[in-house]
């Protein structure tokens, strides 16, 4: 499989957002396409509100991503998107939520929270390929706030940077998620694809 295009995806969010579920679903979708995939967590299961970072690498041997190596940055929380920018290679793709889930330090007032404009400026200094979406709002519209991560995965699949589209993710959801949460997540997938066209 040496002819597989190498794609390094860096995912970041905060505990309780479903970052690791999204990582698993994306890795299973890659596998379902017959592509070699490696995934890993950089920061273990963070407590609710703590930072969670994970990687999905297509056609790569190591699950690690160094600074300037990520082809894609998927940020489920905007401050974490900004914090993870050093990992993005120049001209890489960013898909980020614009809805904050501030870490404890910000909630307690010991650290300032950047504005969405600050974050967009920081992203635009690294790449002009960026999509921003209200993932929690989309999740709520679909029926569960956590399904916002599926909406973001769907947007990523629809962005044209992966060797498959949202249909592959849809098949993975149907094959791997319990039936009782499938409808919500399939609705989130549909809304995520639409959000990309806005």
UniProtKB/TrEMBL annotation:
Keyword Chloroplast appears in the UniProt entry: no
UniProt KW Lyase keyword: no
PANTHER family assigned to the protein according to its UniProt record, in alphabetical order: INDOLEPYRUVATE OXIDOREDUCTASE SUBUNIT IORB (PTHR43854:SF1)
An example molecular function term from Gene Ontology annotations: indolepyruvate ferredoxin oxidoreductase activity
InterPro entries: IorB_Oxidoreductase, Pyrv/ketoisovalerate_OxRed_cat, Pyrv_flavodox_OxRed_cen
EC top class named in words: oxidoreductase
SUPFAM superfamilies per UniProt: Pyruvate-ferredoxin oxidoreductase, PFOR, domain III
Enzyme Commission number(s): 1.2.7.8
Domain Pyruvate/ketoisovalerate oxidoreductase catalytic: from-to ranges: 15-193
Protein keywords: Oxidoreductase, Pyruvate
UniProt-recorded name of the protein: Indolepyruvate ferredoxin oxidoreductase
